[in-house]
Amino acid sequence: MSDLLTRYQDSLMGVFGTPQLVLVEGHGCHVTDADGRTYLDLLGGIAVNALGYGHPAWVTAVSEQAARLAHVSNFFTTPAQIELAETLLEVAQAPAGSRVFLSNSGTEANEAALKIVKRHHPGGRVLALEHAFHGRTLGALALTHKPAYREPFEPLGADVTFVPPEDVDALAAELAVGDVAGVFLEPIQGEAGVVPLSASYLRAARELTRAHDALLVLDEVQCGMGRTGHWFAHQVTGVVPDVVTMAKSLGGGVPIGATIAFGEDVATTLAAGQHGTTFGGNPLACAAALAVLRTIESEGLLEHAASLGEHLRGRIEGCHDLVEGVRGSGLLLGIQLTQEVAGQVVTAARQAGFIVNAANPSTIRLAPPLVLTVEEADQFADALPGLLDSVGRQAEGHTVTTDR
Ligand SMILES: *Cc1c(COP(=O)(O)O)cnc(C)c1O
Questions:
Q1: pTM
Q2: Which of 61, 68, 165, 257 could connect to 247 by a Cys-Cys bridge, CB 3.0–4.6 Å?
Q3: Closest ligand 1 atom, CA of 110?
Q4: Of 141, 150, 221, 225, which is best to mutate to test ligand 1, by the most ligand atoms within 8 angstroms of its C-beta?
């Protein structure tokens, strides 16, 4: 593995730092590295591998479509593209007149949303939340809060004002200043450390944006596509947004993003020629996404994500002094630690054969495949107190003697 990592460093840009592992294959919820070690993957390629690795329905759909027709350009359409758009409108419970734009990533899904917002109210400002993550291109980056990501590239593609999450008065005050074209929200802020917005905040945001003729855009790139036990996280709130964006789990590992504009007015904001993409909506990615959607349905993965998420939360809450609590819902969980040791926990977990992620220095993020079994979840829950013990001893400066 170290030889491959040396070659990586000599050939790829350093923007990701040093990769933790070189992975060579995956089955179900497990991946294997170049040295032959196998790991239980509780991160799922950051909420992407909804069906795990090598799910037969997904593999069949992707290989059959690859053999038949992989790409045609948007001068043409395909049955897979049309069927995917129809299915997305259905699961999003979008009203008549709603329309889909297909792209290749979460960032692009948000770029399309931003262009809709900009056309809705030309010259207007956009509001986003502190700690928001909406992507890395110059439009989506403008909506992303973290100064270290954003400031080196300013000026960016939109005039964005950040307001604190969960503060209805701050949102109302900023909208009252006027000239707001749209508000971008993640129903669960993923990169921030799995921080959910309350239903009452989302409902207030809906009422306020409507009153000020600003569009409400919900970024469900991470929390959508069944992860919370609902097709979309906002659906439990009853809020009907103007635009919803999605990606990550949608393709089950093949890159695809989608932007749904709710209702005819919003859906016709962008005229022919005002947006486009070469790869977006290609039949290969659409067949992959259709396989994901159909399998979530046929295997009852919404109910499974909800109940397994509750089970995991119950097992993790109070399992150790270092655990302050668990946020999130379904299979998007953030384990809040009492100390900034998330990085050490990730390393200890990996050494013990588990892949998890530090969303920030004090939060462990779990976003496993939706096909994770109760037994697999329990393996992690069984191991967690020991992992936290070893990290806790390190944090206290004691020598770690036991090999877990
Ligand atoms: C991952 C993510 C994005 C960016 O998606 P990419 O596919 O990496 O471009 C945007 N918004 C949210 C909420 C995300 O989690």
A1: 0.97
A2: 257
A3: 10
A4: 221
Residue having the nearest C-alpha atom to atom 8 of ligand 1: 106
What does the pLDDT look like over 26-46, one tens digit per residue?
999 999 999 999 999 999 999
Of 248, 256, 360, best ligand 1 pocket probe by most atoms within 8 Å of the beta carbon: 248
CATH T-level fold of 57-298 = Aspartate Aminotransferase; domain 2 (3.40.640)
Separation of 283 CA from ligand 1 center, angstroms? 22
**pLDDT for 248 beyond 50:** yes
Q: Is the CB of 232 under 6 A from ligand 1?
A: no
Same fold flag, 2-55+300-395 and 57-298:
no
Q: Is the CB of 105 under 6 A from ligand 1?
A: yes
Please report which confidence band the pLDDT of residue 278 belongs to, taking 50, 70 and 90 as the band edges.
very high
CA distance 101 to 42: 30
Give the start-to-end residue ranges of the domains of the chain.
2-55+300-395, 57-298
Confirm if 366 and 345 have CB atoms less than 8 A apart: no
In angstroms, what CA-CA distances link 161 with 52, 126, 158, 171, 297?
Answer: 38, 6, 10, 10, 39
| Interval between CA 396 and ligand 1 midpoint (Å) | 36
Helix then strand count (H, E) for the chain reads: 13, 17
Query: How far is Cα 374 from Cα 268, in angstroms, rounded to an integer?
Result: 45
Using the mean position of ligand 1's atoms as its centre, give its distance from the Cα of residue 190 in Å. Answer: 9
Architecture of domain 2-55+300-395: Alpha-Beta Complex (3.90)
* 288-333: pLDDT as tens digits: 999 999 999 999 999 999 999 999 999 999 999 999 999 999 999 9
Share of the chain above pLDDT 90, in %: 96
Q: Is the CB of 103 under 6 A from ligand 1?
A: no
**At residue 399, does pLDDT exceed 60?**
no
Ligand 1 near 135 CB (within 6 A): yes
Q: What angle do CA 140, 143, 147 make, to 5 degrees?
A: 110
pLDDT higher than 90, residue 191: yes
Mean pLDDT (whole number) for 329-346: 98
Mean pLDDT, the chain, as a whole number? 96
CA–CA separation, 358 and 344 (whole Å): 9
How close is the Cα of 89 to the center of ligand 1, in Å? 21
Question: From residue 394, how far is each of 211, 391, 399 by CA, in Å?
Answer: 54, 5, 7
